[in-house]
């Protein structure tokens, strides 16, 4: 099963976009999948259901950090590389999907009761979010391969 399929399975089981992305890559970094799910919980729905940064983007940022992030306070090279890759991911995601903001991607504001109800009624969590997960993982995997 591909990472995209695994992530979509997590999502269809009730985990949010951010959890679905991070959990798929957790074992690659010896991160317990359950811990990954906990860490990523608050990033769903555009960070705590505020409609801001898409959970797919947040999950990818965490994976990029796991891959390239600095572990020493004075490691400016790792920090710069991580920031560059996060910017590249965001650029590609926005270019392909139109935005990195949840409320713009879904066309409604999850931070309001009305917006969340609209998203549910229109089936956006079943029609839009799985596409975002698939395309986001494609972009993330490309970046991880390119920037070894």
Would you mind describing this structure in some detail?
With 148 residues, the protein is an all-alpha fold. It has one domain. 67% of the residues lie in helices and 0% in strands. It has 9 helices and no strands. The chain has helices at 3-12, 17-25, 33-40, 55-68, 76-97, 102-106, 113-121, 124-127, 129-146. The mean pLDDT is 96.
SSE topology sketch:
Elements: H1 3-12, H2 17-25, H3 33-40, H4 55-68, H5 76-97, H6 102-106, H7 113-121, H8 124-127, H9 129-146
Helix pairs in contact: 1-2, 1-9, 2-3, 2-4, 4-5, 4-9, 5-9
Put the structure in a nutshell.
This protein is mainly alpha-helical and 148 residues long. The protein contains nine helices and no strands.
Largest sheet: none
Total strand segments: 0
Count of all domains: 1
Task: Note poorly predicted spans.
Answer: none
Strand content: under 5%
| Element-level helix/strand string | HHHHHHHHH
Number of helices: 9
Mean pLDDT: 96
Based on helices, strands and strand pairing, what is the structural class? Answer: mainly alpha
């Amino acid at each position: 099963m591909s990472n995209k399929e695994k992530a979509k399975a997590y999502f269809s089981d009730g985990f949010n976009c951010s959890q679905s992305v991070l959990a798929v890559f957790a074992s690659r970094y010896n991160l317990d999948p359950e811990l990954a799910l906990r860490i990523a919980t608050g990033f769903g729905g555009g960070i705590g259901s505020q409609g801001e940064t898409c959970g797919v983007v947040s999950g990818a940022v965490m994976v990029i950090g796991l891959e390239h992030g600095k572990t020493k306070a004075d490691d400016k090279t790792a920090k710069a590389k991580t920031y560059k890759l996060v910017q590249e991911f965001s650029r590609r995601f926005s270019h392909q999907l139109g935005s990195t903001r949840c409320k713009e991607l879904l066309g409604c504001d999850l931070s309001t009761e009305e917006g969340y109800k609209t998203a549910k009624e229109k089936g956006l969590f079943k029609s839009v979010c799985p596409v975002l997960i698939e395309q986001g993982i494609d972009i993330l995997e490309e970046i991880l391969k390119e920037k070894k």
